[in-house]
Hints:
Residues 8-180 form the Isochorismatase-like domain. Keywords: Hydrolase. This protein has helices at residues 32-45, 99-105, 118-131, 158-172, 179-185, and strands spanning 9-13, 50-55, 84-88, 110-116, 135-144, 148-149, 155-156, 175-177. The radius of gyration is 15 Å and the shape is globular. It is built from five helices and eight strands. The chain has 187 residues and is an alpha/beta fold. The protein has a six-stranded parallel sheet with strand order 3-2-1-4-5-8, sandwiched between helices. It has a two-stranded antiparallel sheet with strand order 6-7. The longest helix has 15 residues, at 158-172. Helix 3 packs parallel to helix 4 (158-172).
Amino acid sequence: MEQINKNAALLIIDMQQGIKHPKLGKRNNLQAEENMVSLLTSWRLTKRPVVHIRHVSRSPESVFWPGQSGIEFQDSFIPLPDEHIIEKNVPDAFVATGLERWLHVRGISHLVLVGVVTNNSVEGTARSAGNLGFKTIVVADAAFTFDQRDLNGRIWSAEDVHALSLSNIAADYASICTTAEVINGLQ
């Protein structure tokens, strides 16, 4: 893997308490949080920019509905005072958040995406990042999703949903790498 730009931003997507709710079902990548913490630690040590993205749902049934504990960041992902926080209401972190402008003002053209849900907020954000011209990496083992029921009632495993989503992203929008590859690229 090539060297990671000194100004590359780490975008941590929706790592909030609500994502641990049992109603979301079976998930994949049980080591994803550990990998995200490794990346966050590396970003902080190398003084690269970190953006924490918080989903604020418009649906009262959501695990990210305002006024409940699910909207809070997980303990391992509480932003430091010099780290940027974006709040979004739709899966794509670029929609109506000012993220694109914030990145451009700071001369940031390289993004590394981690978080949840692979086939929702991660994929939506990666698609926009690629379309907007950002050089984007999605870290496959630092993201996860849940089993998904399709319109015919078939349940697809989280592993399959994750793999297909990463394939969608890799087709046109971002490179797909592992935590180890990204950390090695920081040297």
